[in-house]
Design a protein that fits this description.
Length: about 300
């Protein structure tokens, strides 16, 4: 077993990254559709920790944060204090689908720790690119072991491109960029996709790797449909487009805004079906051989 790694990222907030990450992870872990249930690990790299609250439940997550068993404490212990913890020590079963779904939780302290790492390493004459490399190398070392225990590893990232997000992008087999098909949400899409396409630990020998844009919160309005048509026409140069579209849904919106949950996103049949289709598409794409594309050199 060697897990496929999927990052869900976008420079813009509010486009549904966490909802997509959690919904896809639960669909994979449940074996929705004709798929066999997969063993899935969600690594939460967002200081808002919404994915962690959803998957662990507020009480369990609060206890785990208090015990220093979240991604921020792991990074601080390893990089700043020189300890040798394992990411496995912070991984816990999700509240629902606990036989197949697991979580490396985040914490609201993650943003402060990320700044601490940058200051700590800059004082040792490391620039931002080297900070990203340190974090990426650390995660890569941990993933070498974790890949053997899971079928799929999903990174849920914060808005923008932080050092943690960049590290996740470099290690991913597949990068998913959720976006709403409207003018405002697409203003920075091309720039973000161009940046993502060249994310690599081996920058001199990097090859262009197109991210996959997921049309999310899609409405049947004229504006959304025209934007979708334009996005699909532009696909292939700076990004690819997923076939599965996630419709705008009051049920999905309510679930995405509700933190008082019992560990599982309670979608209706239509919502469960669309995320099952998306999960199947992502697994199929991740299993494909990497395409031969242009090199940075």
């Amino acid at each position: 077993m060697s897990a496929k790694i999927i990052s869900v990222a976008n420079m813009k907030g509010g486009v549904g990254k966490t909802t997509l990450s959690v919904a896809v992870s639960q669909s994979l872990a449940s074996g929705a559709g004709a798929r066999k249930a997969a063993k899935v690990l969600v690594v939460d790299l967002d200081a808002q920790a919404n994915a962690s609250f959803w998957l662990a439940g507020q009480a369990a997550l609060t206890e785990q944060i208090d015990q220093g068993k979240a991604i921020d404490a792991f990074l601080e212990d390893t990089i700043v204090f020189g300890k040798a913890p394992s990411m496995q020590d912070i991984i816990r079963p999700a509240k629902a689908l606990s036989d197949h779904l697991f979580l490396a939780p985040s914490s609201p302290n993650l943003r402060l720790v990320e700044r601490e790492l940058i200051v700590f390493l800059s004082r040792r004459h490391r620039n931002l690119m080297e900070v990203e490399r340190v974090v990426s190398d650390l995660l890569d070392q941990q993933l070498a072991t974790l890949r053997k225990s899971y079928d799929v590893i999903i990174f849920d990232t914060a808005p923008g491109i932080s050092a943690l997000t960049e590290a996740a992008l470099r290690l991913s087999d597949l990068v998913i960029v959720p976006t709403v098909p409207d003018y405002v949400s697409n203003l920075g899409l091309l720039s973000f996709c161009r940046s993502v396409a060249w994310s690599s630990n081996d920058i001199p020998n990097a090859t262009k790797r197109l991210p996959w844009v997921a049309a999310n919160k899609v409405k049947k309005t004229k504006h959304h449909q025209l934007m979708l048509e334009q996005m699909r026409a532009e696909a292939g140069a700076e990004f690819n487009m997923l076939k599965t579209e996630i419709p705008s849904s009051p049920t999905i919106d309510q679930i995405a805004s509700d933190l008082d949950m019992d560990g599982k996103l309670a979608f209706d049949a239509a919502g469960a079906e669309v995320f099952a289709a998306l999960a199947t598409e992502l697994v199929e794409l991740a299993a494909r051989p990497a395409p031969q594309v242009e090199s940075a050199a």
